[in-house]
Amino acid sequence: MSILVTGGAGYIGSHTVVELLELGKEVVIIDDLSNASSKVIDRIENITGKRPAFYQLDVKDKNALRTVFEKEDIESAIHFAAFKAVGESVQKPGLYYENNLMGILALVEVMLEFDVKKIVFSSSATVYGSFNPSPYKEDMPVGVPTSPYGQTKVMCEQILRDIYVADNNWSISLLRYFNPIGAHESGLIGEDPSGIPNNLMPFIAQVAVGKREFLNIFGDDYDTEDGTCVRDYIHVVDLARGHVKALGKLDQDKQVYTYNLGSGKGTSVLELVNTFVQVTGVEVPYKIAPRRAGDLPVFYANADKALAELNWTTEKSIEDMCRDTWNWQSKNPNGYQG
Ligand code: UFG
To answer: Model-level pTM?
Structure first.
C-alpha cells in the first residue's frame, strides 16, 4: 500500500517523502515540476537508498490522476501541490483560485472513485487571519487572510470539512504550518525558490552565498522588542515528521483533525539574521526598508494540541535551522541547477 504525495518534489513534500521512506513506507510522488526539479527524486534516493515512484503530472488532470490510482495501490494522500507565493497571488488571484481549488477538487474526486478516503492537507497559519491574537489555537475561528493564496487555504479546509460531513468514512488532517525553514542535514535537498526569493530565510541564504548584495528588512518600527516582525520558524524536517504523525492518526478514528505545526516560540527578523551570522560565520549585509504590505507584526503557534494528540513537537533549534540552511545553500549555490 502506498502513500500518494502530491507536490512531493517540492520543498516540504520532498522532506516528507524522505521521512516516510525512512520509516519503510511506500511512496508515490506526483508533481508537475512547475516549481520543483526532477533531480529531487535522485537526491531522495541518495539519502534513503530507495527510489519513490514518480509521475510528472498536474494534479488538476483527473484522467492522468486516474491512471496513477489504477497502477498503484494508493491507501492515503498527502496534498502539498499548490501555488504558494503570497504577493503573486495578489497580482494573479484567478490563477491561484483555479490552481489551488481545482487541484484539491480533482484529487478528492479521484480518491472517492477509488475509495481512498484518508488525506493530510497542507494548510497554513494564514487561515487565522489578522484579528486572532497570538498564540494561535486550533479552536479559534478561521479568519480572513489578506491574500488570495491565504483564501485558497481557508477554502480548501472548508471543502475537506464539507466532504467529511457528507461522508463520515473520510479521515482528514488539516495541518497549519507556521514558517518552515532549514533543510535536510545531508545538504542534498532544500528550498530552491525560482527567481527572487519572497521569504526571509532563502533570501538570507542567497545573500550569504553572494547571489544577492544585501537583505532588505521590511520594517523596524513594529511594536516588537527590536522593531522587526516576529514569526514562528520551524525546521522543515520537524515539519515533515509532523506529517508522518498526522497520517498515523487518521487510522485511529475517522474525523477531521486540525493541528498547528509550529514551535510555539517567536523569533524576530533581526534575531534570525544574527543567529545565521553567528552559526555560519558568514556576513549578511542588510538595510532597513519600508514595511511590506500585508505583514502582521507578530504571529506564532500554540503547539500544545499536536503534542497532546500526536505526540509531536519540534526538536530542532533556530541554530539547527540556520546551520542546515547554510549547509544546503553552500553545497548548492544555484539550488538544483548545479
Ligand atoms: N522579510 C524581510 N525581508 C525579506 C523577506 C521577508 O524582512 O526579504 C520579513 C517579512 O517582512 C516578515 C518575515 O521576514 O516579517 C517573514 O517573512 P516570510 O515572507 O519569510 O514569511 P511570512 O510570515 O510573511 O509568510 C509565511 C508563509 C506564507 C503564509 C504566511 C502567513 O511563507 O505561506 O506566513 O501564515 F501565508
So the answer is: 0.98
Q: Whose CA is nearest to atom 16 of ligand 1?
A: 200
| 48 contacts 186 by C-beta, under 8 angstroms | no
Q: Identify whether the C-beta of residue 17 lies closer than 8 Å to the C-beta of residue 5.
A: yes
Question: CB of 216 closer than 6 A to ligand 1?
Answer: yes
d(CA 10, CA 80): 8
| 286 catalytic residue (yes or no) | no
pLDDT tens, position by position, 155-195: 999 999 999 999 999 999 999 999 999 999 999 999 999 99
Residue nearest to atom 1 of ligand 1 (CA): 200
Rounded to whole angstroms, how far apart are CA atoms 189 and 42? Answer: 10
What is the per-residue DSSP string for 135-180?
A: SB-TTSPP---SSHHHHHHHHHHHHHHHHHHH-TT-EEEEEEE-EE
The catalytically annotated residue of 149, 233, 257, 259 is 149
* Residues 101-152: tens digit of each pLDDT: 999 999 999 999 999 999 999 999 999 999 999 999 999 999 999 899 999 9
Give the angle 58-157-37 at the CA atoms, nearest 5°. 30
Residues 222, 290: contact at Cβ < 8 Å?
Answer: no
CA 112 to chain centre: 25
**Letter for the amino acid at 52?**
P
Q: How far apart are CA 26 and CA 4, in angstroms?
A: 9
Say which residues have a Cβ less than 8 Å from residue 126's Cβ, sequence separation at least 6: 86, 145, 147, 149, 150, 153
Under 8 Å between Cβ of 288 and 217:
yes
Q: How far apart are CA 297 and CA 302, in angstroms?
A: 17
Instruction: Tell the residue number behind the cell numbers 498536474, with chain if given.
Output: 58
